[in-house]
Amino acid sequence: MTKRIITTARVLPDGQPFKVVGRFGWALKCLVKAGERGCTPIDHPGPRWSAYVHRLRKDHGLVIETINESHGGPFPGSHARYRLITETEIIEDAAADAAKAAA
């Protein structure tokens, strides 16, 4: 069976624990670890950063700032930097077997 990664977090100082599944939890962990400097899809490659941020905002009420940054190089353009404003802590990560969860 495929295992799902489940991340449990809470808003500080006294928020209730909430669970985030899969890549959404991965993105939240990246944001918490990055702190003030934030994350970019360049530094933390992920296929759908904008979707991860949208869901974290919508489903869990987290305040995440989006900063647009220009970059040069052979393919100049811009990218987003996401910075978690809401003080959040990761409580635990658990690999949950989908079959066990259903039983």
Question: What is the total tally of β strands?
Answer: 5
Overall average residue pLDDT: 89
N-to-C order of helices and strands: EEHHEEEH
Count of structural domains: 1
Shape: globular
The N- and C-terminal alpha carbons lie at a distance of: 13 Å
Read across the widest sheet, the strand sequence of neighbours is 2-1-5
**What fraction strand?**
35-45%
Please give the count of helices: 3
Oligomer: single chain
The main sheet comes to: 3 strands, antiparallel
Structural class: alpha+beta
Radius of gyration: 15 Å
| Uncertain residue segments | none
What does the secondary structure layout of this molecule look like, with pairings?
Layout: E1 3-11, E2 18-21, H1 23-34, H2 49-60, E3 64-71, E4 77-84, E5 88-97, H3 98-102
Antiparallel strand pairs: 1-2, 1-5, 3-4
Report on the structure:
Helix 1 packs across helix 2. The longest helix is centred in the N-terminal third of the chain and has 12 residues, at 23-34. The chain has one domain. It is α+β, with helices and mostly antiparallel strands. It has helices spanning 23-34, 49-60, 98-102, and strands spanning 3-11, 18-21, 64-71, 77-84, 88-97. The protein is built from three helices and five strands; from the N terminus they run E-E-H-H-E-E-E-H. Helix content is 28%, strand content 38%. Residues 18-92 form the Winged helix domain. It holds the Pfam family HTH_91. This is Winged helix domain-containing protein.
